[in-house]
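User: I'm putting together a small comparison set for a docking exercise, and I want a reference complex before I start. The sequence is below, and the ligand is adenosine-5'-triphosphate. Could you produce the 3D structure with the ligand included, as structure tokens?
Assistant: Of course. I'll restate your input first, then give the structure tokens for the complex.
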Amino acid sequence: MHTFILRRFFFLTFVLFGVSVLLFGILMTFSPERRAAAYVTTPQQAKDIPRIIKQFGLDDPFYIQYVRWIKEVSRGNLGWSLVAARPVGEAFWRYFPITLEMNLYAAPIVIFLGIWLGSISGIHRDSWIDHSTRIFAIIGWSLPTFLFALVLLMVFYGYFHLFSPGVLSDELAMSIINHPEQYTAYTGMLTIDGLLNGRPDIALNALHHLVLPITTYVIVVVALNMRVMRSGIIEELSKDYVLTARAKGADRRTIHYKHARRNALLPVITVAGQLVAMSMEGSIAVEVVYNRQGIGWWLAESATQLDMPVLMCICLFMGLVFVVTNLTIDILYATIDPRIRLN
Amino acid sequence: MTALLQTENLVTNFYTYEGVVRALNGISLVVDYGSTFGLVGESGCGKSVAVRSMMRIIQEPGRVEGGKVVVFFDPDNQQRGVDLLQQSEAYLEHLRGDQISMIFQEPNAALNPIMSIGDQVAESFLFHKRKEMCARVLEALRRPDGPSASPLGAFQRHLYARAARNPRDLLVTLTTKIPLLKHWQRRLKKEALRRSIEIIGKLGIPNPDKVVKLYPHNLSGGMKQRIVIAIALACSPLLLIADEATSNLDVTIQAQILDLLRSLKQTEIASILLITHDLGVVAETCDRVGVMYAGNLCEVADVGDLFHDPRHPYTRALLAAVPRFHQEGPLLSIEGAVPNLVDPPAGCRFHPRCPEARDICRRQFPETVDMGGDHTVACYLYTDQARAGDAP
Ligand SMILES: Nc1ncnc2c1ncn2[C@@H]1O[C@H](COP(=O)(O)OP(=O)(O)OP(=O)(O)O)[C@@H](O)[C@H]1O
Ligand code: SF4
Ligand SMILES: [Mg+2]
């Protein structure tokens, strides 16, 4: 088991290396002038572009620039973000907790709700439970996230005034700004920091602001998870080992949950892992519509302004997330499936 | 003869998108105590459906829709049969694996790939022998050299005592469902594993204590089939149903498994219902044979009778298609194909392929005729109607 993890780990380091080379290669397709413009903040500096190219070696050969870049990156220097008006690294740690916070709540819901709905749907195939969950899934899956988020916002904010966009109410945000000595941002996640600072009102309010984004995200994403689980359960239930289990006197619960579901979980792990990894970029539509300044929002803003260092940073981050997710998926797979563990 | 299992007019249909598959069209047979009953017939004639209907483990979209499956648990009291089709699912769960067991055609698919061999065999004991095993564990706990009585130990002992009295005690059931608390069953599971090792060893598998820790993909096909047999035999059932248990194994392993079944019949189980394509296997192992065609039982007889004096045209064709040691003349094959059971031929389902078919065969289904000497045939060649001048 340990050698298995170690092997995967080495393999994934190589993957990460590949991703970084690829990313840098794409960046290199821009002319040195275009890249130099990233350092320019005022029109007056435009004449400095040739000097900037010289100073930063922007016309050096690929590998020299790559090594230089990697050195900087590993020291934590990712460049300057125009959008955030601060270094990319620092900006990242501002936006990342917002996204992570949503995922911390949304991911378990997506995973467990998907497994649960998919299981009952597959076990009670063609019953009304099955039909209604499938209709729910089809609607969720085919709705454009952006539109769906807007509709929910219109109904629950615009009409019922139940929830509002943003991450925190204005009064509470002002109270934090006005008394910075009373509030320490330990994690950057308001629901957690609120509790750590002894301010349950902040935590609750932040949670209240999370309801709509999480709902939107879960409804849109849970469908895929559910469908994989459902078809997995149906397939497993038709297999011969289920017949063996029935012939030895197993009751339905044992057959469904101990035999079929454990087998059907294998493909779900992959799908759920990928979904969680993908949502780490912050489900752009959700963050933009609900005005949550997380990674997704930052990515959208930076993309429209061609803020290259930010885009590079987010791509690299996504590469890292996928690598870590895949490692986790592999380990989970190996713990469930003995066929993988042993060879 | 004392019957163990008797089916009457068993009817099973599958409700598929293409239409209703009439897979079983009224099967009546009797498996006696102490006998081995062979069920033969071409692929797709409904042998598996027949035995699965008897155990009520037909898969979706199939439904057992008529007839009786009567089991006589007491060989001395032939009046007191239980019709399985009238019983609850819970009753059948108690019966399956305990009184009637089944082994399957494809050992590579018959075991759960992600569950250890030990766990899969132990399930049989955990389903059916809870009471005895709890009593045994309790005995060990009560021995003076047993574990000392901490409050937790006392609680554990209490649970075992209750389970030994009534395995479906409310408190016992509840505590098996609560995480952490359910670990009181550790000793019960150990006992089940001990019994699993014992039964696996009995079936001639070397190093049973190592094998229980393995997973199906670690074993060869023959080994897997032995494990499947171990699961079926764990609780010493009255009847073992072997659904082509040897078809997918190579010849030497096949012979070993058949030997194993034969010896088990002398020691562990009362009767065997053996499904096979292989008439050679039937001749070697069975006492009685039933021949199936397209969801019907055409002919039932003692094995010698059937081979020497086959009456049904299909049985004759089947026997003529078997290569013999002293083969004279060409090997005959049966013309035509097994009919589609969504729209089976009217009358006798064999008539499109029958060399002796006559008018009435196309119109009406033949009744089963007793030929004497426990030999029955469903064919118009032997009924009065047909003899009364309806010549081919
Ligand atoms: N799940 C199912 N859905 C629809 N039809 C089925 C199903 N299972 C069996 N059948 C039908 O029942 C008929 C009998 O099948 P069965 O498996 O009993 O044949 P068999 O005699 O056991 O054949 P084999 O020797 O190949 O195992 C088949 O013709 C098939 O069409
Ligand atoms: S009933 Fe008729 S068709 Fe059927 S087997 Fe007998 S002779 Fe042939
Ligand atoms: Mg079969």
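Chain B has a mean pLDDT of 87. Residues B 14, 16, 21, 23, 41, 43-49, 59, 62, 244, 341 surround adenosine-5'-triphosphate (ligand 1) (CB under 6 Å).
User: Thanks, that's exactly what I needed.
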